[in-house]
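Report of the visiting student (M.T.), summer placement. My assignment was to run the structure pipeline on a short list of targets and document each run. The first record concerns DUF5119 domain-containing protein.
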Amino acid sequence: MKNTVLFLLLPLWLASCERRELTFYTEAEITVTADWSRADQQEESQYGATLIFYPQDGGTPRVVLMGDRTQTTVRLPDGRYDAILFNRSFDEFGTMAFRGQEQLHTLEAYALQTETRYGTKIITAAPGKLASAVIRDFEVTDNMLGNYAPAGARSVADCPDGACRLQFTPLPLTRKVKVKLHITGINNLKQATCQLSGVPLSIYLHDGNTDNAEKGVQEFEVEDITPDEDFAANGTLSGTIHLFGLPSTEEVQIKVRALLKDNTTVIEREVENIEANEEADGSGVTTLHIEADITEPLPDVTISEDSGFNANVDEWGQENDTEIPI
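After the run finished, the C-alpha cells were exported:
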C-alpha cells in the first residue's frame, strides 16, 4: 500500500520540479522615477525622455525610451550599471544631434545647424534646452532577480531599502543667456541679428564639460526692439538664447548687424561698455545677463513701404571684435 501511494505521488513531484525550472528568473524589474522641477523645462512636459544603462563590464548599453518622462520600469540582468537620463530622444531635437552613445563618458550633444563663414563655424539655430542626470554604480544582485513575478511563482526576491528603485533629478546642461543692448537711433531700426563668439559647439552629457569642445559663433535674432518712453530715438534690443556653455573672458565678442527701415541699409555696430552678471534662481538654473551699449547711433533713413525681402542681411562683412570683461 505504501509503495502504491508513493507511485501515485511521483508524477506530482516531477511536475513540481519542472515548475521550479520554468520560474527561474534572470532579470530584476527596476522602477525609475524622475523629478524635472529643477531642469527649467516647464514647456517640455509633453515630450518623453531617454534613459540609458551602461553595463560596467563593457556590455551593450540598454536604451529605454520613456513616453512618460516622470516614470517607467525596466528589467535588467544582474550586474553593475551607470545610468543617464536626458529629455526627449536622440531624434527629437531639430537643433542638436548626438554622438559617442557607446559609452557614458563619450556621449556628447553637438550643434546641428551650423554654417562656415570666413573660416568660422556659425551656429544658426541655438541648441535649445537640454537637461540630464547621472546615477553611477547601480547594482542588480542575484537576490533581486524575479522581483516582478507573483510570490508563489518564484523564489524569494529581495529589494531592501529601495534597491530596486532609481530616482533621477535632471539639471540644465545648456546655459540661459539674456542679452540687452542699449542703442541710439532705434526709431530707424527694422530688425537686428547678433553674433556671440567663443561659444562651445558641443557638450558632454554626463558632466556638462565643454573645455575641449570646438568653439564657434552663436547667431541669434533680437526678440524685442523697445524704444524708451521718454525719448523714442533711444531704446534697447533684447534676446534670450540657450547655449552649450559660456565663452571664456578672452574669447567673448559681440557684433550686431541691423537692417534699417528703408529696407536697404544694412550696417554693423560694435558693442561696448559690456557688463556680464550671473543670476541663480535657487533651483539650479543660472542665467547670464549681458548688458552693453552700441555707442555709434544708427543713421536716419526714409521709411520704406516695401517688405524688405530683397535686402541681403545674411553675409557679414569684416569683423570688428569687442571683448567682454567677465
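Residues 175-294 form a domain with the Immunoglobulin-like fold (CATH 2.60.40). Residues 196 and 254 are 5 Å apart (CA to CA). I thank the supervising group for their guidance throughout the placement.
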